[in-house]
Design goal:
Helix content is about 40%, strand content about 15%. It has a 6-stranded parallel beta sheet, with helices on both faces. The protein has a 3-stranded antiparallel beta sheet with strand order 5-4-6. It is an alpha/beta fold and about 250 residues long. It has 2 domains: about 1-30 and about 80-125 and about 175-250, Rossmann fold, CATH 3.40.50.1220; about 40-75 and about 125-165, 2-Layer Sandwich (SIR2/SIRT2 'Small Domain'), CATH 3.30.1600.10. The chain has helices spanning about 1-15, 40-45, 45-50, 55-60, 60-70, 85-95, 110, 140-150, 175-190, 205-215, 240-250, and strands at about 20, 95-100, 120, 125-130, 135-140, 165, 190-195, 220, 235. The chain starts with a helix and ends with a helix. The protein has 11 helices and 9 strands. Helix 1 crosses helix 11, helix 6 runs parallel beside helix 11 (about 240-250) and helix 9 (about 175-190) runs parallel beside helix 10. Bound molecules: nicotinamide-adenine-dinucleotide (NAD). Nicotinamide-adenine-dinucleotide binds near residues 28, 36, 105 and 239.
């Protein structure tokens, strides 16, 4: 894929308003498994995908208990950003990165040093909890302390409602303010990087189409095929931890 990498490098070199759309694949090299890759959580355990709908979470105490236990053990709490996250920080330092639109909930872009105002968390964050009834937002660690102390299905301390991590499950709406910000960034970029995403979850995946429709070239860097490969200017399949640093060094 040397010619593809060269082409991608030239595109990055010539761009000044870059927008990156990132997915779980940018964090696998930090030890957080993706969903649909070869080592993905759902590839290995297809039943888990069925339990990720908001209706199951609301209906079933058992699903909530399992979710809190899984949250306690989430590798994201101990993960460090990898060279792909750091390459995006470097692109921002060069003044050429407008925004990171991330489907990830792990906070690794911010941990790496990307500007808080540049990171748009399309699917929320695992760092907070939200009450599904009164919208009370708390630090996740507060709730996890309660789980550790024996509350298997902690309730909202204000209204008694169901608590959930501040992440977007299937069946939940994306925050309209967040999706608007993301669309505005996609429509005005001069290069879209789609990084480590299977591009199968909407509306996030549609951001690639918005950028391409507005005339921006698109680089898709992803280990496996995506539905948008035909629309991309260049497709790169190598691991992101190698690809991205080589794309941003001037
Ligand atoms: P996905 O699992 O559907 O796709 C990830 C893609 O990344 C796969 O196609 C895989 O082949 C590719 N990939 C994996 N490691 C790679 C690497 N090192 N280099 C290049 N490509 C690599 O994930 P998605 O597209 O982000 O969408 C699904 C949902 O997963 C999102 O809603 C997101 O919220 C959620 N998710 C987030 C995290 C996280 O926060 N780290 C982890 C798992 C899932």
């Amino acid at each position: 894929t040397a010619p593809e990498l060269d082409h991608a490098r030239r595109l990055v070199d010539g761009a000044s308003r870059i927008v990156a759309l990132t997915g779980a694949g940018i964090s696998t090299e930090s030890g957080i498994p993706d969903f649909r890759g070869p080592q993905g959580v759902w590839t290995k355990n297809p039943a888990a995908e069925k339990l990720s709908h908001i209706d199951d979470y609301v209906a079933s105490r058992e699903v909530r208990e399992l979710s809190w236990q899984a949250r306690l053990d989430h590798p994201g709490w101990w993960a460090h950003p990898n060279s792909a996250h750091l390459a995006l920080v470097e692109l921002e330092r060069q003044g050429r990165l407008e925004a990171i639109l991330t489907q990830n909930i792990d906070g690794l872009h911010q941990k790496a040093g990307s500007g808080e105002h540049r990171v748009v968390e399309l699917h929320g964050t695992m760092a907070d909890t939200l009450c599904l009834s009164c919208d009370d937002r708390r630090d996740m660690q507060e709730t996890l302390d309660r789980v550790r102390a024996g509350e298997s299905d902690p309730e909202c301390e204000i209204c008694g409602g169901i608590l959930k991590s501040a992440t977007v499950s299937f069946g939940q709406m994306l925050d309209p303010v967040v999706i608007e910000r993301a669309q505005a960034a996609a429509v005005s970029c001069d290069l879209m990087l789609a990084l480590g995403s299977s591009l199968t979850v909407h509306p996030a995946a549609g951001l690639v189409e918005i950028a391409a429709g507005a005339g921006a070239p698109v680089i898709i860097a992803n280990a496996s095929e995506t539905p948008y490969d035909d629309l991309a200017t260049v497709v790169v399949r190598d691991p992101l931890g190698e690809v991205l640093p080589s794309l941003v060094s001037r």
